[in-house]
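Thread title: Can someone regenerate the structure for this chain?

I was given the following input by a collaborator and told the matching structure tokens would be attached. They weren't. Posting the sequence so someone can regenerate them.
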Amino acid sequence: MRARRAEAAAIVQKNANLANGFATIQQNNTQATGDLISKIAMQRMSKRV
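Best answer:
Regenerated them for you:
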């Protein structure tokens, strides 16, 4: 019983680590997209003047 509980805890921990990894990747993607959009906006603004 104890072995099974330890195994379940390990699986839960592994899933939590995976979820955190995906969350970090998503956050980085969002940040990069925001940077791109602001770069394009700045370029467009500077071209108009």
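Residues 2-48 form the longest helix (47 residues).
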